[in-house]
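Step 1: inspect the first sequence and its tokens.
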Amino acid sequence: MTLAMLSTQLEATEIDSRKTIDKWKLFRTIYEARGPLGVSDRTLAVLNALLSFYPKTELGEDNSLVVFPSNAQLSMRTHGMAGTTLRRHLAALVEAGLIIRKDSPNGKRYARKGRAGDAREAFGFNLAPLLARSEEIERLAAECIAERQQLRWLKEQLSLCRRDIAKLIEAAEEAEVPGDWADVQAQFDSISLCLPRSASQQEIERVLSELDNLRQTIVNYLKTFAKTEKMVAIEHQNGGHIQNSDINSKTESEAIADRDAEKTSISSLVTPNQHDAPLNVVLKACPEIAFYGPAGTISTWNDLLRASSIVQKMFAIGEGAYHRACEVIGPKGTAVIIACMLERADQINSPGGYLCDLTRKAERREFSLGPMLNALMRAKAEKDRAPCIPDGNLAPNADAPSVGAKDLRAHTGRIARSEQQPSIWSTIAHRGTSSPLSNHRR
């Protein structure tokens, strides 16, 4: 006899005499709550056999709740369970507080009958605790069902997240989106493999959170890439123009009303001669940007746009400032500006603020790419006698800022060393630069 058994017996004596419950419905509820109750499937098989000896379907105080089957009868109804195993599971039911032993003076199980043939007193196993604890058992069963449903939902979300990441990586590789996708795949595999075969709810939640962060990071990166590609397509459709900051210059585009009807439309500020500075001249003036292109080289304007998008993220230039510059100056013009900024990054304290300032000057027609590129070419000409950009539509503007050429190898090295942990994009373009995914950490 233990204190728990004594408490169960006292609770069983305080049952409402009018209380009844379907014994098989109660058994199914016990089966749902078997975990918190601490009973196994085999133990419940013995309880099922005991309930089968109760003559009525409804458990109630109006009838004796004591059943008194012999071990042989119990063994038969448990499909031949051995006597030692049977006794062990009966003890487990008593310890779990689901039944109470009611022993006779000689330890046998029997019922003493009266003259009318009815059982006056029975000795065996009392089922009263089942009736007394029915509300508690129903509550435990409801909690277990809710937990199992939550676990099932988490597993479904985990499977969907895995599938999404695999498809995103496959789509990015097929579209040749720049980035170390093999490293992303390796990180995806490492997160997935750390989940044990029989994982708990907490372990599944942790892995799901990491995979969801990885999925969102990939999606955000692909969105940024898609926006850049869309801007390039629009630029090609519109004929591709670069901003000329000469206030007295004439444009072929007609001036249209701004959304406030007070400012000149951006389309009225562009000139048809955007490509006076060929791509090879831009690359001569800004050689450092080539290291951020696909495979460490730039051969097309698309390559330059992709490289500038990576450098934009490295400089922590906000998306709003970047897209505004693309609207005012054009995607290619913005890419050239970022390439020039990369050449003199050690002289620029706030790249985002610097780009915003140039954008505002461009809106006022006070900025041109010519002076920026001319300054870089002149500085390089002093070293290797490279020709400067011929004056023309890209003639220097007195109001435009003068830019000096600086070697950025040491600066980009400092940026790379500033990362506390390796990024999944640490080998983009084989240069170790950051990318839109560099903020993701395991």
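Step 2: inspect the second sequence and its tokens, then contrast the two.
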Amino acid sequence: MHGGGPSGEYSTCKMFANIFITFVGAGILGLPFAFKEAGIIEGSIIMASVSAVCIKAMLLLVDSKNEVIRRRREYQQEAGLLRKGGGGGGDGQVDTDIDFGDLAQRTYGNTGWWTVQASIVLSQIGFCCAYLIFITQNLQSLIGGLSANTYLLGIMVPQLALAIIRDLKGLSIFSLMADAANVFAYCVVFFFDFEHIEKVGSHAKAIKLSGLAFFFGVVVYCFEGAGMVLALEMSVPTERRHEFPRVFASALALITTLYIAFGVSGYASFGENTEKIITLNMPPGIFPALIKGCLCFSLYFTYPVMMFPVSTILEKQLSKTRSVTYFKGNVLRWGLVVISGLVVLAVPDFANIMGLIGSTCCMLLALIMQTFKQQLGHLTSSDVFTLFMFTSAHERT
């Protein structure tokens, strides 16, 4: 995502595409199983409701950032007048580079800052663990002959080399290829599901209250781009940022529709035999193998991108108390890769990882910590309703 260029070079389609790519991740592959646990009607209602609250909450985050900038501008204008009266002058520049952590610190102090940073670190590691589980289980189904742990060890070794890349530009070509592979594979799996709906669709459950809590965690996990909302908004040229809320809401509405359709069609296609990762339901064959291979390739190179902010945050904190050499930075990155591998060995379950991360870290980032606007003293009746939904959602999990 790159902003700051002329507005003519940054189209609405590019804005939409950036949002789409940020939010549509591996979580979609676990939605059919989640719908099996919750039922079609219950799942659709929860998905739509959570989506509406998430959209409102994430736009509140953007509003809060703009409120902080407005207050900074007012303060600097007042200070400028004082300097002018005293013979000084100000450059009129206002720092608009505000991230999630800055807002948390402004409204909740150091506790808020640490909460956000910890949530980002743990959620990103959780996403990486989910990717590793997906890759190992699909490799095992494709190739066979070896245990999932053996495949895990095999794919972890190259990740140690990718982990020491300090600039995301070095991974940009792989990232673009991964995005293309993702879209292609999701479309094929989607249409493959539709071919089998008539076989078991009539036996799909409508409501299953016992799966409510699990489904809720998975749904919040699927909105894994919540921590990137401010980065997305700042990537848009200043003169076009007024369009962001409308485009963002439209993109999330489309993504929600896609999530519901993908989850319902996958569950309706395989019924009670729906696997925790929908690709495991695909039959043997060259084409299904190609799809699994595309997804494995995509998630494999998404792993270092998702781990990048974790190493950046931790390295920045370590540098405040001691010098961090290049080698020490590498050791930190290697340690994170090893930790994610150990987590997968301990919890080799894609659905459980999604539910756990979704109901804890993603809940904080997508819902609970979005109440900055309340703390800033600008709370409308609509915001009150959203905050009530935050609290209710948090209590259910």
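Step 3: confirm your contrast with the notes below.
The first helix runs from residue 12 to 23. Residues 11-85+96-101+128-396 form a domain with the Amino acid/polyamine transporter I fold (CATH 1.20.1740).
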